[in-house]
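Model the whole thing, not chain by chain.
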Amino acid sequence: MDKTIHFRIRRQDNPRSAPYWQEFQIPYRPEHNVVSALMEIRENPVTTQGEKVEPVAWESNCMEEVCGSCTMLINGKPRQACSTLVDTLTEPIVLEPLTKFPVVRDLMVDRQAMFESLKKVKAWIDIDGSWNVHTGGPRISPQEWEENYIYSRCMTCGCCMEACPQFGPSYPFVGPATLAQVRLMNAHPTGKYFRADRLHAIMGEGGLSDCGNAQNCVEVCPKDIPLTTAIGELGRQTTIQMLKDLFGPGR
Amino acid sequence: MSSKQPRTIVVGGGLGGLWACLALAESGVAVDLFCLFEVKRSHSCCAQGGINAVLDTKGQQDSIRQHIVDTIKGGAYLANQPPIKTMCEEAPGLIRTFERMGVTFSRTPEGLMDLRLFGGVKNRRTCFAGASTGQQLLYGVDSQVRKYEALERVKKYEWWEFLSLILDEEGSCRGIVALDLRDMSVKAFPADAVILATGGLGLIYGKSTNSTNSTGAAASRAYQQGALFLNGEFIQFHPTGMLGDDKTRLMSEAARGEGGRIWVPKNPKERRAPRDIPENDRFYFLEEWYPAYGNTVPRDVASRAIWKVVKDLGLGVHGEDKVFLDLTHLPAEFLERRLGAILEIYRKFKGVDPCQDVVEIFPAIHYSMGGLWVDWEKDPVTGGMKLGSARNHSTSIPGLYACGECDGAYHGANRLGANSLLSASFSGRVAGQSVATYVKGLKQTAATLPSSLFEQAQKQQEEVNQALVSSDGKENPYVLHRELGDIMRKKVGVVRQNAELDQALSQLAELQERSARIGLDEKADWSNLSLPYARQVQDMIVLARVIAQGARLRDEFRGAHYKPEFELKLPEGKFPGDPEYDEYIDNWKRNNEKWLKSTIAKHTIEGPRISYRPVDTSVFPPEQPRDYR
Ligand SMILES: Cc1cc2nc3c(=O)[nH]c(=O)nc-3n(C[C@H](O)[C@H](O)[C@H](O)COP(=O)(O)OP(=O)(O)OC[C@H]3O[C@@H](n4cnc5c(N)ncnc54)[C@H](O)[C@@H]3O)c2cc1C
Ligand code: SF4
Ligand code: SF4
Ligand code: FES
């Protein structure tokens, strides 16, 4: 074969079976990203050793780094496969599933825990109903907008959760992405009304105090979300909340 | 399940589906929400540009009437007008609801929602949230649905694929059969009504600007079970798709707007690097053909010109389907400031800097105006749609509803930019409300029907899967999909010719035959990806025939459906009062008498049977063609 791209992929047939490794080579093309390479492998899944195998399973949808589905470990780093160009990687390119979430199959993992946490911390703004109430929403200054917008770009991709030493299947910690959403909802002019509920949800076990402040999360977020800033702000909010709980009315 | 309480199903967790869910949950109706993956990953998150609503906060005397007229004219009068009227009227309230949900809309200095100008209209009418409007809108509704999920009024079935409808003896929809994409089991879910919100169908053309969930397979399945399909031939192309191995990503129109120039080398065998090609050897065809607008001609005009240069003149770069979009003559600092987000996407996915190198582009399949036919009830007083009626967004199958890009109701022959996030949201809410009315009026809930109905439907789908898994057929689904895309892009594309459409139709029929002989390499009984993919490909081919057949029969040029042979040319330099212009209007009206009608496709074993229905033009009768001069 002429110039090729060489992959080493960690595979696992189902959540209960043992993992194993396989290697694949495909013809080189400069524009390949990891997903387009996986697509090529899928059409004719033959290993470097010439063995015909089951196609590699992975997850993707938008192919524009906005849906968050294609996160995996690429050469050891959690990132989106669709926006990782093969040309920027050293070979063999090692693909592994995220380690902090249960493996479904091959490179697919189950990130349900992240969505469950969003439920737990009540990551929504309470509205009376989705009907027209014939009045505009609250005003928000461009400065506030700018601070909040960045948090609203979180695509629940799980990179930060993967990097966080405190997060994992056997830990109760809700993780940095979830905390950042609490920060976002609490900053909203009407979201504030139920700030106390969200703070209480992160004041117990698995909440804010589980964060060891290792800062790993913020380094891997593909959307540059200032996770540790959010965690710092929530620290101040929970302290005040604690005092309120002790000395004053709940909210 | 209690037999008294109605249960409903929503299939699809994009903007349309989530809105439907929310409306149902708010009406106190229990919902099961099915989605191929976690709902937040739906294609709606790709939309960057914005969502239209007349807020008139820019001192331009914008009006709802104007929004209605723009939508109708943009769609070349092919959409029924009462639903458009109501959609535009409801848009401002809908946007404010999004705002109340916490959607991070971009702001003016005084803290109001900012508005931007978007293609095809004169006024600033488009609300936006940075460069990720669709994502923010989706997350807004997602968070509201999560609240109802926490209250156990919505139950999510993520990682489930809808396979078929369950129809009772009277032909009413009584549930769905779905595939668990993890353990590959097939299960019947009884329901009193079903809403399909399964998105677009760009993948039928192979590569498109759409996410991979946009296969149209779900709509095809409903169609194959009897639901009528509307205006399939109307597919919008975006002129500046960046070519990629895996998808054609959207290069925003802003690139042309800010001064980007489109050209090809005069010599198709040109081997020099683009920047080494001297001006004299470049063909700036848009500037030459449309001196008044140059590179900023409207989307459809640009697409057709690029098509012509490549297909008719054979001037595609390296003989391939591509032309150059050139930004390199503009100062890098200016580009960075004006087009930062777009440049970033290109750098990220191409590894090339558009400030330094030309960008390769070609028209890309972007949006399907057609979709499942849906009904509406007209309000005799307002002339709009009667909200709350159980008829709104009902397909031709009782109890089956459709909303979002998979219905064909709002955009006629072409869609205005930033109008589809609106139609997806609005139609989702309407469909949810209609279903709430519908199920309350039902005499008998699905739970009281004989279980054999559901068992039978489930067994049928199990057998289809079994047959595929054990087939020793030689056809590879991935290869079939590629061939499907090639046929559709080449022959049912921007410019359409009857001879080519005939070829496409026979090739599609042949492809459909071959797709019955798919064999799967993958035998896994857990998270098998090839099995659902193969079934999607089979169903995509069926829908491709609807698109091609509709295109073959429609001998005219309307909106995104362009057949040069039947084009009525606007007389150059002539205006109302000039005899040439009046003659043109006469011809245009005569053509409307013949062709201003909806294409309705009905599935038969031999292929789609096409008929036509009149269009309700009671709001803004067709007196004036679209004229951008
Ligand atoms: C790149 C791009 C940019 C765009 N920008 C804009 C813009 O700026 N403004 C604008 O107005 N419009 C824009 N659009 C169009 C707009 O994004 C879509 O029309 C709209 O988001 C469609 O929403 P939807 O809810 O109908 O479908 P989707 O968001 O596609 O959701 C479909 C859902 O159905 C599910 N589904 C599909 N099949 C099945 C099945 N068999 N079983 C179970 N679930 C299934 C999927 O999982 C998904 O959840 C853009 C489109 C593209 C491609
Ligand atoms: S700062 Fe906290 S949340 Fe972030 S990685 Fe460290 S422990 Fe995890
Ligand atoms: S915060 Fe960043 S890394 Fe974490 S889930 Fe969100 S987008 Fe991904
Ligand atoms: S496929 Fe959506 S982020 Fe990669």
